[in-house]
């Protein structure tokens, strides 16, 4: 082991000793996973090695990295955690290669190291990372108090026996609203987000955990329809378009992700073409009587398409820009807005790569 690795190992042991001491004093409850003593961390903490990432795998001296986000499960663990390759295995020193789910890690291991024991790999560290804030609150109050006010407001009332109930308490959830529509196909089993008390696969965003809006044909969210080869079940998880754009999981994303008018599902690691979603969005707009609503919906379509290298997506974006031009700069009746009477040359078409920054999307999408 190199000097740097030894120093890191000592640092990890030191931190574990501190937390163990705190636990013995009653400050933080002891947390163990896979035989490892876990120390709770703050949001967006970055680290290397045990207990939250492997060491000496696949070769001695290889230390994996880890990072957590902000969202918490009701159990006190982070919903968003990332695993990063050791420096030796990274394709670029400028951009770290990381994984956002155990499924993606497992796929990588089976692809690059087909003879490796994936179960033994995950047993060597803890995938779960506890929140320091949640556990301090637990020690003070005796229970986790991390449910948001919005979740509390949506808590379902006592259901009538036999009636379906939405886990998120959403009275407009498709699972409880009786409408004449074809039900969702059988969905794949999920023991990650769907095991959380306040998360409903039918109506909650997998990225922010808030409920989706079915208004105007559900233009503001994407539902993954990836099908399992074995039993034909579908993923069925949904995500707000804006959340997916901000998380670099939809629209045009360069680098190792490589999305072009596509959506990447964080739960099942599948990709979904969004062209049909944008076309459906346009069709919905033709039946809406509000200019403001039409503009808002078309801006969502623009965010998905802008920067695409696909000819079809570029033409679709051009059509949206024509409609927006007429909508905002003419006094035409809404029924005339959809007629292609404006010269394409009169409307600026934005091309090239899109700089995917959260501030840009918050400005452009205006959701």
UniProtKB/TrEMBL annotation:
Residues 40-131 form the DUF7081 domain. One of its GO terms (molecular function) is zinc ion binding. GO terms for cellular component: nucleus. It comes from the Eukaryota. It is found in: Nucleus. InterPro entries: DUF7081, Oberon-like_PHD. The keyword ATP-binding does not apply. Keywords: Metal-binding, Nucleus, Zinc, Zinc-finger. The keyword Cell division does not apply. This is Oberon PHD finger domain-containing protein. Residues 169-303 form the Oberon-like PHD finger domain.
